[in-house]
Amino acid sequence: MKETVQLDNISLLLKELLEVLMKYGHSNSHLHSNQIINILSIIDDKEYDLNNKVEDIHYLINRLYMPKAGLDEFYVRPDLTSDSKNINKRLSKIKEEFYILIYVI
């Protein structure tokens, strides 16, 4: 049941990421938000084969961080909140946690 724990952790990270995007995202952040919502729906789908689910989710998360217009380039600007430095550090940490959940565990 390692995959179930992995998916639960991915779901928590996605929800946190979605919250930041909804609050501080720019005009094209809705594309990433929609993709996150799609991944969350796959995680919640009980009819989805577990092996396919894990594979598809890994693929879709990697797509979130594609070069040029991916979340690698997303950051919260200092003029949006005084806490932008901490939020941006957390965004970097979320990416690292995805990597660990997808490739290490």
Main traits of this protein?
105 residues; elongated; single chain; mainly alpha; 4 helices
How would the blueprint of this fold be written?
Layout: H1 2-24, H2 29-44, H3 50-64, H4 84-104
Helix pairs in contact: 1-2, 1-4, 2-3
Describe the protein.
There is one protein chain. This protein has 105 residues and is mainly alpha-helical. The protein has one domain (2-104). The protein has four helices and no strands. The radius of gyration is 14 Å and the shape is elongated. The mean pLDDT is 92.
Distance between the termini: 12 Å
Rough shape? elongated
Would you list the SSEs in sequence order as H and E?
A: HHHH
Average pLDDT works out at 92
Question: Compute the gyration radius: what is it?
Answer: 14 Å
- In percent, how much strand structure appears in the residues? under 5%
Which ranges are low-confidence, i.e. pLDDT below 50, for 5 or more consecutive residues? none
SS element count, helices: 4
Largest sheet: none
Tally of domains: 1
Total beta-strand segments? 0
